[in-house]
């Protein structure tokens, strides 16, 4: 899931499209150097004085503040007031609002499955020609396909994240002589070494309000990419093999060797069952108190560390790549992202959606910190913290074996429903691997 932010890809586009963007009616220019300089002429093509646009998303707290700052100059110069609301119950409440006739103008949806549901029901508006031009120029076809339904583009990619990271304390590693593992076996050997001292090496948290369970689905997806080929992962996500296929059971059992191992978890909080009641935002914080050593979580977890925490290779916290099991299988990476979709097609709504797809906005937002995007106009020099730089480098590297978050691609009733719930039951011991996977398989829409 994107949060969460959470979000979930290769990058290439024709030069001709890039040139066309410059001339697009609502292109607003993609000169990154002009962003955030106080020059209102940058936004001439977007002006709709005295209008308002509402945006609803799962992005909250500090990250939400940075979002609002990123479009403040745009809003002032164009006369479009943007009313933003972030919610921890976004996925559930968005459906309620749409069904109740109270849909936001724009939503940042991290689940392509949910985009398809709204598009199929006729609730979403296809993007305008200007937004389409901007999106096609700045994002790869692989990214655009996740917001395309029946050949129609309904959303532009927005923020992105890389999920295949394990957070740790460089200081602790130095003091205790630990080495950053580069293989799965090395990571397990390190876990055993730490557990042998009587400490619990891993900490985790999957509580997230109505979205409780999503971090556990990320574990299964990341391990699936390490125990199976990318093609098998795609078959699983598309339900070309059943959810309870032995291949998925193998991956879940391997995830369980960490998540359900009371010698490994849950450092700072309790036994393995405490994972389900520990807020995802707090899941890795015991690292700072030396109560756990390792925390698998996405790049956006950089936003959750307390103010003043130094995120760097020589800082308070940093992260390493969640190692592959078989190095010969390449370097699989799990990721996600949000897509800006619109439930209204007023001119000011289209203008905001177009601007948010621009390289101009991506660079303005990046300069504020804590931002990752697959937008090809994003200058990596504008990306602030080292984890985000590492993530953008991965997203812009065509050799990366990248796959979007599986639960976000599945039908919403599964991806944000039974999959989330099933993983909570699995963590709590309510169902074993076979029972959990059968429960999710039986829920797949016929």
From TrEMBL:
PANTHER family: ARABINOSE-BINDING PROTEIN-RELATED, OSMOPROTECTIVE COMPOUNDS-BINDING PROTEIN GGTB. It comes from Catenuloplanes indicus. Keywords: Signal, Transport. This is Alpha-glucoside transport system substrate-binding protein. Belongs to the bacterial solute-binding protein 1 family. It comes from the Bacteria. Residues 1-25 form the signal peptide.
């Amino acid at each position: 899931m994107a949060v969460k932010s959470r979000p979930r890809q290769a990058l290439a586009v024709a030069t001709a499209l890039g040139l066309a963007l410059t001339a697009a009616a609502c292109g607003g220019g993609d000169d990154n150097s002009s962003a955030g300089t106080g020059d209102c002429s940058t936004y001439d093509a977007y002006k709709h004085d005295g209008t308002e646009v509402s945006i609803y998303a799962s992005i909250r707290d500090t990250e939400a503040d940075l979002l609002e700052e990123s479009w403040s100059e745009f809003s002032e110069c164009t006369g479009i007031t943007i009313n933003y609301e972030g919610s921890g119950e976004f996925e559930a409440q968005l459906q309620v609002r749409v069904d109740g006739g109270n849909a936001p103008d724009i939503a940042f949806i991290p689940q392509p499955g949910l985009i398809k549901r709204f598009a199929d029901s006729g609730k979403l508006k296809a993007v305008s020609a200007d937004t389409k031009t901007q999106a096609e120029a700045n994002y790869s076809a692989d990214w655009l396909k996740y917001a395309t339904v029946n050949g129609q583009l309904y959303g532009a990619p927005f923020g992105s994240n890389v999920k295949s990271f394990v957070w740790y304390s460089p200081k602790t590693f130095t003091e205790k002589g630990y080495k950053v593992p580069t293989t799965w076996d090395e990571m397990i050997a390190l876990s055993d070494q730490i557990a042998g001292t009587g400490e619990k090496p891993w900490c985790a948290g999957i509580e997230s309000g109505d979205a409780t369970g999503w971090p556990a689905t990320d574990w299964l997806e990341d391990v699936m990419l390490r125990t199976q080929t990318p093609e098998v992962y795609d078959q699983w996500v598309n339900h070309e093999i059943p959810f309870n296929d032995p291949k998925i059971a193998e991956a879940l059992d391997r995830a369980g060797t960490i998540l359900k191992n009371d010698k490994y978890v849950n450092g700072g909080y309790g036994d393995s069952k405490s994972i389900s009641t520990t807020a995802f935002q707090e899941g890795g914080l015991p690292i700072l108190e030396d109560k756990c050593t390792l925390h698998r979580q996405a790049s956006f977890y950089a936003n959750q560390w307390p103010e003043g925490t130094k995120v760097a290779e020589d800082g308070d916290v940093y992260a390493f790549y969640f190692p592959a099991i078989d190095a010969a299988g390449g370097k699989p990476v799990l990721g996600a992202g949000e897509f800006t979709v619109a439930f209204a097609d007023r001119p000011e709504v289209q203008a905001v959606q177009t601007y948010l797809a621009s390289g101009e906005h991506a660079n303005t937002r990046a300069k504020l910190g804590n931002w990752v995007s697959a937008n090809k106009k994003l200058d990596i020099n504008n990306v602030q913290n080292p984890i985000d730089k590492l993530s953008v480098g991965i997203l812009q590297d065509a050799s990366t074996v990248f796959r979007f978050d599986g639960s976000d691609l599945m039908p919403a009733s599964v991806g944000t429903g039974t999959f989330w719930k099933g993983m909570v039951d699995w963590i709590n011991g309510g169902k074993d691997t076979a029972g959990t996977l059968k429960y999710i398989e039986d829920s797949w829409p016929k």
